[in-house]
Amino acid sequence: MATDDDRGLHSKAEEFLQVFKKGAEFTGELMRENERLRYRVLQLEEASRSTEGRTGASDESLRLTARIKELEQEKEEILGRIREVEEENEDFATRYVEIEQENNNLANLYIASYQLHSTLDFKEVLQIITEIVINLIGAEEFAIMLLDEKTNELQAVATEGLEREDVPSVKFGNGVIGEVAKSGESYFVEDVGSYEPDMAAPMVCIPLKIKEHVIGALVIYKLLQQKSKFAQVDYELFTLLAGHAATAIFSSRLYSDSERKLSTIQGFLDLLTR
Amino acid sequence: MSEYNVLIVEDSPTMRQLISFALKRLRGIRIVEANDGVDGLKKLSAEKFDLIFTDINMPIMDGLKLVSLVRNDAGYKETPIVVITTEGAQEDRERALALGANDYITKPIQPNRILDVAKGLLKIA
């Protein structure tokens, strides 16, 4: 027969079992929770690693963006430099053309000057002046007039495209030609294109002078068909002709005179010594 | 050493010098000058030329006669000839081209035109 002690023991055992069961359940719960937390920790660790990766990519992206900016800036600078170089090239090309033109002009002036002083023969000098006016200036009808100091008149000594008789003698100081000879200043019509031929009023009249002493004039009445106006070099050629042609004419006339006189004197000497 | 021999046949010393001056800007050019057609023929028979510039109006023998004689010479059938004319001398120019001239330049002479014509006919870049 069960005693009260036995019942008490049984009841305590029951309680203990209950407590043990609860403990076991609690332990099971703890273990599950532990498992869940470990899983969660793994998840978080994974997420953390992933986030770290994304942060790295973001850094690379920032670095690349910065590099792109740098390169774009460099590109802009290079494009700017190219534009500058292109502008410089254009300037050089323009300058080259100008220098080439200047070179041509200087060559023309040199040739004109060289030819004018290449002879002491009066007729040759006139021929050279004629060639220069045709070939370098481009005149078709013109005359070279010289001042006769005895009559004080300017008379044509050489013509091109005109008969010498067609060019009237002009009194020093009279009309356009006479006035040019008197003043020593060149004359040009304002508009070459609308010029109407007039023997008394040429298109161009250039005094031939040695320093301030005028010995004649170059008068132009018509330009070659393809020549519609004067270029800068033409004015320089006119200036050159004004001085050098005059000197060449003057020198050749002096030389011709001295040759003639020498020949006359030689003739007399020959007669005397026979 | 010269690569190209060029003959300038022109009675005007000014023109000869002008053409010569322009051509000397090309490298390897040797220039020989003649006073008229007869002088030109003499020079052509003495040596071989690669290009001939000739005026049309010249004493003794004019440029047209020279072009005709040069083109009838087997040794010069292919040699380029450039005639020098005035703008108004259209007939002379056409006749020269019909006789076998390759090109022409008109007075007043432009050095650049001489250079362009010479470069084109000598095939210089």
From TrEMBL, chain A:
Keywords: Coiled coil. Residues 121-259 form the GAF domain. InterPro entries: GAF (IPR003018), GAF-like_dom_sf (IPR029016). It comes from Geomobilimonas luticola. The keyword Coiled coil applies. Residues 54-102 form a coiled coil. Pfam families: GAF_3. This is GAF domain-containing protein.
Automatic annotation (TrEMBL), chain B:
Pfam families: Response_reg. The keyword Repeat does not apply. Keywords: Phosphoprotein. Residues 5-122 form the Response regulatory domain. SUPFAM superfamilies: CheY-like. The modification 4-aspartylphosphate is found at D55. This is Response regulator.
